[in-house]
Write a structure and sequence with these properties.
alpha+beta; Phosphorylase Kinase, domain 1; Aminoglycoside 3'-phosphotransferase, Chain: A, domain 2; 6-stranded antiparallel beta sheet; two-stranded antiparallel sheet; 12% strand
Length: 356
């Protein structure tokens, strides 16, 4: 799968209710500046919540994000939580799109949905950034580091998000949650996942502070300004909650440990010649900016193993939807098939933790 398979938009499929006249009338009545004929196209990327570009004849452009159709796993696809956190972040140093409304009238598009502004800019899918210069690549990585540091430094109480997640035992609760999600979506046995389900609860890192975390902080979940490559908006807040910032950051840093060919990573590339910071330097810069000590190598590898376990569980959920015929992307089966190799990589980090 190349970037062309993930970028841009495609026409909506026949029978997709997002293109209904009722939605056009609803948006025109409730959001200012929506005039003229409405056209709808679906964004290619993403495996979870279907996302659409809504364009009006007068040039107004919006983005609609909704739950997928069909039977869903408990607590998954929570677009109402996405809407809440994006709205709370609108006046912070974490850039997000401006939200307009959350609608729970399922007669309009078949599910709950929310609408936000369309943010123009670059979305990069390949972390090697082949079309940029070394200086531009360095800029992109500096921006990602700046934004995730800003996110983890926010005052949750001031944002009105004290109840956005449970307090305490974050890692234990997350491992239990993703174990449940994985088992509910299992389509074939993956021995590596069974090993991790046993090993992770017995090897938790020390409890850490609780902050607002994104849960899926990746390069392709950001829009970059076309001129100066600053982050214009962070997208896809479905997995956001209150939790351990090191877990959130370790997930973000999986890119450095994944192979380029199959998992769009950086592990087998010469980063210095590309202007991309190495894993150790990028990690040290984050902890220095946050004023936190770096975790031990044992604990860092536990965080990486946990992060890959999450990815594998998410991939398995995609495979389940592909099997059930409710997947959001035509690439769902290909994406879901990665659950096994990702879980096997997670076991390698668990082994490193045991040997540290």
């Amino acid at each position: 799968m190349d970037d062309g398979d993930l970028s841009g938009t495609v026409p909506v499929e026949a029978g997709d209710s997002v293109g209904s006249p009722g939605l056009a009338e609803f948006l025109s009545d409730t959001i200012s500046g929506c005039a003229g004929a409405m056209t709808v196209r679906r964004f290619r990327g993403g495996q979870s919540n279907p996302t659409y570009l809504i364009s009006f004849g007068n040039g107004r452009r919006l983005v609609l994000r909704k739950k997928p159709a069909g039977k869903l796993l408990p607590s998954a696809h929570a677009v109402d939580r996405e809407f809440r956190v994006i709205r709370a972040l609108e006046q912070t140093k974490v850039p997000v799109a401006r939200t307009h409304l959350l609608c729970d009238d399922e007669t309009l598009v078949g599910t709950v949905f929310y609408v936000m502004d369309h943010v123009d800019g670059h979305t990069f899918w390949d972390p090697a950034l082949p079309d940029l210069s070394p200086a531009q690549r360095s800029r992109v990585f500096d921006e990602m580091s700046r934004v995730i540091t800003a996110l983890h430094s926010l005052d949750v109480s001031a944002l009105g998000l004290d109840d956005f997640g449970k307090s305490g035992n974050y890692m234990a609760r997350q491992i239990a949650r993703w174990t449940t999600q994985y088992l509910a979506s299992e389509t074939e046995p993956i021995p590596a996942m069974n090993s991790l389900i046993d090993w992770l609860p017995a090897n938790l890192p020390p409890a850490n502070i609780s902050v607002l975390i994104h849960g899926d902080f990746r390069l392709d979940n950001m829009i970059f300004d076309r001129q100066d490559l600053t982050v214009s908006a962070v997208l896809d807040w479905e997995l956001s909650t209150l939790g351990d910032p090191i877990a959130d950051f370790a997930y973000h840093m999986l890119t450095w440990h994944l192979p380029a060919e199959r998992l769009r990573g950086l592990a087998d590339l010469d980063l210095a010649e590309r202007g991309i910071p190495g894993e150790a330097a990028y990690r040290a810069a984050y902890f220095r900016a946050c004023g936190q000590p770096e975790p031990s190598e044992r604990n860092w590898n536990i965080y990486l193993a946990y992060s890959l376990f999450r990815v594998a569980a998410i991939r398995q959920g995609i495979m389940r939807r592909a099997v059930d015929g409710t997947a959001s992307s035509r690439h769902a089966r290909e994406a879901g098939a990665l659950a096994r190799p990702v879980a096997e990589l997670a076991v390698k980090f668990a082994e490193r933790a045991c040997n540290a």
